Amino acid sequence: MKIVSVVGARPQFIKAAPVSKALRNAGHNEILVHTGQHYDYGMSQVFFDELNISEPDINLEVGSGSHGRQTGQMLMRIEEVLLREQPDWVLVYGDTNSTLAGALTAVKLRITLAHVEAGLRSFNREMPEEHNRVLTDHCSDLLLCPTQTAVDNMGNEGITTGAELVGDTMYDAVLQFSEVARERSSILKDFGLKSKKYLLATLHRPYNVDVPESLGEILRAFIEIDEPIVFAVHPRTQEKIQSLGNSLRAQLTNSKVRLIDPVGYLDMLLLEQNARIILTDSGGMQKEAYFFGVPCITLRPETEWVETVEAGWNMLIGSDWSLIVEQARTMEPPPESQRQVFGNGHASELIVHALEVIIPTRRAGG
To answer: Is 179 part of any domain?
Structure first.
């Protein structure tokens, strides 16, 4: 069986790693296509190096740009790949422009499509990711859902066939690489950090970093929190911070906030599992915080991962600086340990099995 897997952004490399391993262990021919949506070493190549993923068979080198331009370039270049390779399946991950481009190209060429991490909904139509995931789900022949909530979302939208509960491949990855991170990463020693004596922060959503008022509120909260904060700064976020007023940037420099460049997956795993609290607008980090039993403050008004909120491990705060500060000072792990809602660590094998038992078919029509 030939599978073309389309990835392009940091979270997708993590989600794809255990699936690629399972596909190749089962003897299938996977062609890994990297769109180049994330393209510098810190956001891309380091993940292939650390996760022991084979180098992408094809790198489309699309790079950054507006949503329309980026997606359009991907559509054209992925089409060339699929016409040449004629795979049995196209496999897409998550909710990025790379996801949507891979899905639309497969549909136009009548190639059977599977979506890993299907069924997620934030119910916030202002997020480009929400449109990407909804459109991809409604294009897909096989919806590989990480949680029962995701399966239920598909049923609520009238999709009653093709939705499979397989678990979360990011949980597979955490189980596979956490021990490796403890053995190989020296980031705590390098930064002089002690376990549970610091907070970890990331920030990248456009409605947080592209709106000066929201970014200023969040940074003000970081400054007010009287604990060390390790802030791994996304390149776009760094640009926006530089455009803020000198006064706020000076306060940030003189605070307990330590700004660092994006780190590799193994370093991030070690930072996450040793943090007292994680502050983030990343969906993936919300889950990883849950996997490690670390309380999470989500800097968004909504989340796709409602299970983490319902269990008390995740608080939806948004960008209000006073609420962020209050929760950072008072939030503690809930009395009950995490429930196993993201599968048993074998999502990748279940995905491969689903691809094997469903016979790929060409869609009718032109």
So the answer is: no
Model pLDDT for residues 305-339, shown as the tens digit of each residue: 999 999 999 999 999 999 999 999 999 999 988 89
Q: Identify the residue whose tokens are 């970014």.
A: 215
Residues recognised as catalytic:
204
Residues 108 and 139 in one domain: yes
What's the chain's average pLDDT?
92
Residue 139 lies inside a defined structural domain of this protein:
yes
Please state the domain count of the chain. 2
User: Does residue 43 lie in a domain region?
Assistant: yes
Q: CB–CB of 38/44 below 8 Å?
A: yes
DSSP 260: E
The reply to whether 339 falls in a domain is: no
Tokens standing for residue 142? 């096989």
Residue 120's domain spans which residues? Answer: 2-168+344-357
CA–CA dist 182, 257 (Å, integer): 24
Entry field: residues in the chain: 366
Q: Look at residues 168, 204, 193 and name the one whose alpha carbon lies nearest to residue 271.
A: 193
Token pair listed for 274: 């040793």
If 0-12 CB within 10 Å is exposed, 13-18 middle and 19+ buried, where does residue 139 land?
middle
Are 104 and 163 members of one domain? yes
**Nearest Cα to 280, choosing from 241, 223, 230, 245?**
230
